[in-house]
Design brief:
Blueprint lengths: L12 H6 L11 E9 L4 H11 L4 E8 L3 E8 L2 H10 L3 E12 L5 H11 L4 E9 L2 E8 L2 H10 L7 H5 L2
Antiparallel strand pairs: 1-3, 1-4, 2-3, 4-6, 5-6
């Protein structure tokens, strides 16, 4: 097995070759899968059942909808397995590098993160949050990941990497 360090889970050499498009050398990000679904009753249940049958564990999920379709944004335990089974099943999806930040599960924690980013000139495109093991996390899609990481780190906040989320 190949272990590419924080941000990239263990995988076989064949998987590594097939999944090079996912790796961008950006180990401070987490890979988010966005699946495009028809906006009709039962399609989200079908997707979650499909992932369940393939032992893919969702860490976080966000659903955005439009009139005819929805976008399911997910953080999963195994990005490589998920992308492979989704592709084989014909799902239309993309993989996006996002930031994951752990924060205390208390009032004002999200404000602190957002204030730091805003004061640092980082544009937030969207976000969603989740709890795991008595910890709060927020997933952030920003215009410039490198700038956001720099701003966060200057303020004592280190984004969580892919391996850390997979281990939850």
């Amino acid at each position: 097995m190949i272990h590419s360090g924080c941000g990239l889970p263990k995988m076989s050499a064949a998987d590594a070759a097939c999944q090079m498009f996912i790796e961008k050398g950006d180990t401070m990000t987490v890979k988010q899968i966005s699946v495009f679904l028809e906006n009709k009753a039962g399609t989200l249940a079908e997707l979650t059942d499909f992932l369940h049958r393939h032992n893919i564990d969702m860490r976080a999920l966000s659903l955005a909808e439009a009139q005819d379709f929805g976008i399911v944004r997910m953080i999963v335990d195994d990005i490589y397995a998920a992308s492979n089974v989704l592709k084989e099943a014909g799902y239309v999806f993309s993989i996006t590098p996002v930031l994951a930040v752990e924060m205390p599960d208390e009032p004002g924690s999200l404000y602190r993160i957002l204030k730091i980013l805003g004061d640092g000139g980082v544009n937030l495109e969207y976000m969603y949050a989740f709890l795991a093991n008595a910890k709060a996390f927020t997933i952030l899609r920003v215009a410039d990941n490198a700038k956001a990481v720099n701003v966060l780190q200057r303020n004592g906040i280190t984004p969580v990497c892919q391996d850390e989320l997979a281990a939850l």
